[in-house]
Design goal:
Layout (H helix, E strand, L loop, with lengths): L1 H12 L1 H11 L4 H5 L24 E8 L1 H5 L3 H10 L3 E8 L3 H7 L9 H8 L4 E9 L1 H9 L12 H5 L8 E3 L3 H11 L8
Antiparallel strand pairs: 1-3, 1-4, 2-3
Helix pairs in contact: 1-2, 6-7
Bound molecules: adenosine-3',5'-cyclic-monophosphate (CMP).
The site of adenosine-3',5'-cyclic-monophosphate (CMP) has 8 residues, from loops.
Length: 196
């Protein structure tokens, strides 16, 4: 009784503390009998909760193209071996032959660049492989494995250093941000074609 007299005013000021007491003393104990809601969970205020910090990086999807210069030289397998060795999983893939107009829509962001026409012509010159890569931090990882756009500036061991012929014929394309990845994936794949 003395204990309950002490707890009741406390409970009205600090409902979370009452909840805690009910959790500890509830059920068959004296508090449980006095408060029939003994099994109701009352969360403490946010400032008393431990922040849950994720120790994992986000799983992302990114869009990837194996370009005409690479498909022509039979390098699809060698290039994908590098993506897979880096922990990227191919969750969608198809071999297609773009028209120049379709390539133009895909690279519309470069429309004003002097190399736009040459780029579209090149992308429509031979079949390409379009694919979706999935993994931890996939956008950054894909960029790292591809290497710099210009093979002359690419690091040793990267796809472009090893296989690219020039800045134009640079073997692979990869999305540069989550927003562009979403748009680029949707240009080539329906949702049901992505199998993780
Ligand atoms: P990609 O990552 O597919 O994005 C745009 C492409 O434009 C790029 O790779 C290159 O292939 C191409 N590109 C960029 N700069 C040049 C350039 N100076 N001359 C020709 N092509 C270029």
């Amino acid at each position: 009784r003395l204990l309950l007299g002490f707890l009741r005013p406390l409970g009205s000021r600090f409902p979370w503390a009452a909840g805690l007491a009910l959790g500890v003393w509830g059920g068959t104990g004296p508090v449980g009998k006095a408060f029939p809601i003994a099994h109701t969970h009352v969360s403490p205020p946010a400032k008393f909760t431990c922040p849950k910090r994720s120790t994992h990086m986000a799983i992302q999807r990114t869009f990837s193209i194996i370009k005409p210069d690479a498909t022509k030289r039979n390098l699809t397998g060698a290039i994908n071996a590098k993506f897979e060795a880096a922990g990227l999983r191919i969750v969608a893939q198809k071999r297609i032959h773009l028209t120049k107009a379709q390539a133009g829509v895909f690279y519309e962001v470069h429309k004003e660049r002097p190399f736009y026409d040459e780029l579209c012509e090149f992308m429509a010159s031979e079949p390409i492989v379009v694919q979706v890569l999935e993994g931890e931090d996939a956008i950054a990882k894909n960029s790292e494995v591809m290497g710099a756009t210009n093979p002359a500036e690419a690091d040793e061991g990267t796809i472009r250093k090893e296989f690219a012929l020039s800045i134009g014929e640079n073997s692979v394309h990869g999305s540069d941000a989550p927003e562009t990845a979403a748009v680029e994936i949707a240009y080539f794949f329906a949702g049901l074609e992505l199998v993780g």
